[in-house]
Write a structure and sequence with these properties.
The chain is an all-alpha fold. It has eleven helices and no strands. Helix content is about 75%, strand content about 0%.
């Protein structure tokens, strides 16, 4: 119980701070002081700040996987999957503009992959398609969504991503099913 409370306090403070300042400005000493723990306690749980950051992204990805809902469209699922990024725009921007931008890219790629693979597999239940083609289709959308989110981050996250994702869904409506049908040819 104490372990969970301490880790939660560290994570909460770190995310709050990351929404205020660049990653390079946050120190273990600062986290320890503000969480009223000693530095050794921080190091008991994490190797360094980057280990903490990696755990946060992994926990968010695990939550995306758990919250996936078969009744949602891929657009709704993807918006749900990016909730952490939407709620913590400055933190994501700060991480992306640090030497750890790969953490953000990997998180977005994994979240997009999870959503699209599940969606395409579900769509293929009605349309027999080869497993190889299912993975190719899901991978294509995974890469496209990842690139769009990364561009959004690079441009300062000003545009409403929900509108963009919804519009993509409208423009490409039916393409996944058409691609699956072509698998049979």
């Amino acid at each position: 119980m104490v372990k969970a409370y301490t880790k939660e306090a560290i994570t909460k403070y770190f995310i709050e701070r990351l929404n205020q300042v660049p990653l390079s400005d946050i120190t273990v000493k600062e986290i320890a002081e503000n969480c009223e723990i000693n530095r050794n306690t921080f190091y008991y749980y994490y190797e360094d700040i980057y280990d903490l950051l990696g755990e946060i992204f992994q926990n968010e990805l695990d939550q995306v996987i758990q919250e996936y809902n078969e009744t949602l469209s891929w657009e709704e699922s993807f918006i749900l999957a990016t909730k952490f990024a939407l709620d913590n725009k400055k933190a994501i921007y700060h991480v992306y503009n640090s030497m750890r931008q790969e953490e953000v890219i990997n998180y977005v790629y994994a979240a997009a992959g999870n959503v699209m693979t599940r969606y395409v597999k579900r769509a293929s239940e009605k349309i027999p398609a080869s497993q190889t083609d299912i993975l190719i289709i899901a991978g294509f959308y995974q890469c496209a969504l990842t690139e769009m989110v990364i561009r959004w981050i690079q441009q300062g996250m000003k545009e409403d991503p929900k509108k963009v994702i919804t519009r993509i869904g409208q423009l490409f409506d039916g393409n996944i099913e058409l691609s699956l049908k072509r698998s049979l040819q």
